[in-house]
Specification:
DNA-binding; Phage_Integrase-like_Recomb; Integrase_recombinase_N; Integrase_catalytic; mainly alpha; about 400 residues; about 50% helix; DNA recombination; 15 helices; 5 strands; two-stranded antiparallel sheet
């Protein structure tokens, strides 16, 4: 099969029976420049995570086709059916399905995207494929397993179990505490927390800290209000702004000191963080950081490296997966079973705790940027079933 570039293919599709057109050299060059611009714009239609997922799906589908001697592009719907059937039969070491139904649908979306991007019909839209997926969905029908919520007392337990005031353990503890409060108080998804920059934060004398989330999973176009509030806490240990101040101060110190004196400098900062004293100005005192510390576009949550004697804060930011792993590890260290929990448990915990404390659905939707009340109510039914339930009014 002869491969043509995108411009030639689109001209061909637009005028199959038209006589050949000889373009002026200057016009042809301009069209190719416009094509390059259009291709660049296309790369922004999907989020980075979605693009990575589609690329992974295409590699999987391509490998399947190579192994069986089948054509991947363009693929016949029957080939896609065989691929779905193959995914449905794969199991892991524990005998559980290797590909969840959501993953199978994501793989099909990746196959579809590649075909449409290259100017071919989407084979995954054929009824023979959709019927197969529908049948698999009925066969595997089960209530989704949701992450259990981490409410306030559990978050405090995790944070308190960390070593905050000893070098080098205190460096990663300071970062991890900040991440936990972003997930709980800010109700942020792990990808949103990982994507924050220093200039995403704005100190506010009355509210605490305003966090500008920007484009998110539920708002790819960044068209919705994206401000999340991290409020002052009643105590320094439950104060999200204090946690942020401590971490940003460490970042500042790490970036400005001589590497040879890093240990001594960071250690003095850690010992200077009195965990029982507000460092965010909530009690009328001074703030540990100011607006100049938040002028950079560098990542907020950085990767850290530490051994028994030293700690380093890298320039690169953490990933969402790293935050998920961190939470589960910190739960284990706190003597808690992490098997039913993940970073999303902090977002779920925000809903559950707020509802227990009397927050309305509208208030919770605003805090977590949910668009549908039903999404919020799911947490009530699963983890707080007594809330707004007439059974509590039976006078038993």
């Amino acid at each position: 099969m002869v491969m043509v570039n995108a411009l030639e293919r689109r001209v061909h599709l637009a005028a199959v029976d038209a006589p050949p057109v000889i373009l002026d050299a200057d016009i042809a060059e301009e069209l190719h420049e416009l094509e390059a611009v259009s291709r660049d714009l296309e790369t922004h239609t999907l989020s980075i995570n979605t693009r990575r997922a589609y690329e992974k799906a295409w590699r999987s589908f391509g490998g399947f086709c190579v192994d069986l001697g089948l054509e991947a592009l363009p693929a016949h719907p029957q080939v896609v059916r065989w691929y779905v059937a193959w995914m449905s039969t794969q199991v892991d070491d524990w005998g559980e399905p290797r590909f969840a139904l959501a993953t199978i649908r994501q793989h099909l979306a990746g196959v579809a995207e590649r075909h449409l991007r290259d100017g071919y019909l989407d084979p995954t839209g054929h009824r023979a494929v959709s019927d197969l997926v529908r049948g698999l969905a009925k066969l595997r029908a089960a209530r989704p397993v949701r992450k259990r919520p981490l409410v306030l007392d559990k978050v405090v337990r995790i944070v308190d179990s960390m070593t905050h005031d000893v070098y080098p353990a205190g460096v990663s503890a300071t970062r991890d505490a900040t991440a936990l409060w972003l997930g709980f108080a800010g109700a942020l998804r792990r990808s949103e927390a990982a994507g924050l920059r220093l200039n995403s934060l704005e100190l506010h004398p009355g509210d605490g800290i305003h966090v500008h989330v920007g484009r998110s999973k539920a708002d790819q176009d960044n068209s919705q209000p994206d401000v999340v509030v991290l409020p002052f806490g009643g105590t320094p240990r439950t104060c999200p702004p204090c946690a942020v101040h401590r971490w940003v101060a460490l970042l500042r110190e790490s970036a400005t000191v001589d590497p040879r004196t890093r240990r001594q400098s960071l250690m003095s900062q850690l010992y200077g963080y009195q965990l029982d004293t507000h460092v965010c100005g909530a009690d009328g005192g001074g703030q540990l950081i100011d607006g100049t510390d938040l002028a950079s576009s560098a990542p907020l949550l950085r990767a850290t490296y530490r051994n028994r004697k030293d700690a380093r804060i890298h320039e690169a930011g953490v990933s969402g997966d790293a935050l998920h792993t961190m939470l589960r590890r910190r739960m284990t260290e706190a003597g808690m079973n992490p098997s039913a929990y993940g970073f999303h448990s902090l977002r779920a915990g925000h809903v559950t705790q707020a509802r227990r404390n009397g927050a309305s659905t509208e208030e919770i939707m605003r805090a977590g940027r949910w668009q549908k009340a039903e999404t919020v109510n799911v947490y009530d039914r699963e983890f707080n079933p007594a809330a707004r339930n007439s059974v509590m009014r039976l006078g038993l």
